[in-house]
Write a structure and sequence with these properties.
By secondary structure, this protein is an alpha+beta fold. The protein has one domain. About 45% of the residues lie in helices and about 35% in strands. The chain contains two helices and three strands. The protein has a three-stranded mixed beta sheet. It is flat and about 60 Å long. The chain starts with a helix and ends with a strand.
Length: about 90
């Protein structure tokens, strides 16, 4: 049983190290893109308002669209979400 715990511990440690290396590489590529002016992008996001009505019904109204600034990277950087994430979640509900 002890060898199983050691194996799991080494596996978790390896995953943490690999994620750290991936984040460091992503940060380095982001900094290079920042120096060249290509670190940020924008994605059009649609906003909808859900208003409750009588009888357990809901009315959905489109509020509008806006351009969401995002970082062209795997992870979010400088308080901007990653563009790939925003593209997949381009609808906001209020």
């Amino acid at each position: 049983m002890s060898s199983w715990r050691q194996y799991c511990g080494k596996f978790v440690a390896a995953i943490v190290v690999l994620l750290g290396i991936l984040y460091a590489g992503d940060w380095a590529v982001f900094r290079i893109r920042l120096a060249h002016g290509t670190a940020y992008g924008s994605v059009e996001v649609d906003q909808f308002l859900a208003s409750p009505l009588k009888g357990n019904k809901t009315e959905y109204d489109m509020v509008g669209s806006f351009q969401q600034a995002c970082s062209r990277s795997i992870f979010p950087h400088e308080e901007k979400p990653a563009c790939w994430w925003v593209k997949r979640h381009s609808t906001q509900w209020e």
